[in-house]
Amino acid sequence: MLITISGPIGSGKSTVATALAEARDFDHVSGGDIFRELAAERGYTPLEFNKLAEEDDQIDRDLDRRLREIAAERDDLVLESRLAGWMAGEHADLKFWFDAPEKIRAARVADREDRDFETALSELRARGESEAKRYQAYYGIDFTDHSIYDLSMNTARWDPEAVLAILETAIDAYDEATDEGAVPVTDVDYEF
C-alpha cells in the first residue's frame, strides 16, 4: 500500500507520517527532509533555497522526479511532501491532506526551528507563496485544489496521536474491491 500525506508547511505532515510508517511497519520518505538536505548541502537556508528554486526550476524538478519515481517503484510506503499526492498520482492507494490555521502552523515552525514567531510567520507565508507559484508554473498544479485527496484534516483540531488514529481507522476500513471513488490526477505535466 502506498499512502501519501500532503499539506502546507507546519501542517503536521512529518510528525504523523513518521508515526504512521512506524505503526504500519512501512518505509517513510519525506520530501521536506530531502529539500532541507539539498539546501544544507549547498549552504542555503530553506527560504534561501526556495528563492533560488524560483530561478532554477531544476531544484524542484529533481526533487519531484525522485518522489514520482519512488511512488512508482515502492510499496508499503508513506510518502510525505507538499505535493506527494500529486506526484504519486495513480500510484497512491490513499491520499491524505493536512492543514491548520496559518498562525498555528507558524507557531509549530517557530517551535521546531527555535525561531521567533513573527519571523516564522513571515517566512512561512513567503515560502508558501513561492512554492504555489512554482507548482502552477511547472506542472499546472493548483495547490489550493484538494479534490484529489481522499481525506482532508485540520490538524489543529486533534493532537498527533488522534490524527494518527483517524488515519489508521480510514486505512483499516479501506477495501480496494469496493472502492468507487478514487479521483484521478489529471492534467499534470510530469515533465521533469
Strand content: 5-15%
Structural class of the helix and strand makeup? Answer: alpha/beta
Which regions have little confidence, pLDDT < 50, spanning 5+ residues?
none
**Helicity range of the residues?**
40-55%
Shape: globular
Oligomer: single chain
Residue-averaged pLDDT, rounded? 93
Q: Major sheet: order of its strands?
A: 2-3-1-4-5
- Rg, alpha carbons: 16 Å
Number of strands: 5
What's the end-to-end separation, in Å? 25 Å
Q: What is the H/E order? A: EHEHHHEHEHHEH
* Biggest sheet overview: 5 strands, parallel
Number of helices: 8
Protein topology:
Layout: E1 2-6, H1 13-24, E2 27-30, H2 31-41, H3 46-55, H4 58-73, E3 77-80, H5 84-88, E4 94-99, H6 102-112, H7 117-139, E5 151-154, H8 160-173
Parallel strand pairs: 1-3, 1-4, 2-3, 4-5
Helix pairs in contact: 1-8, 3-7, 6-7
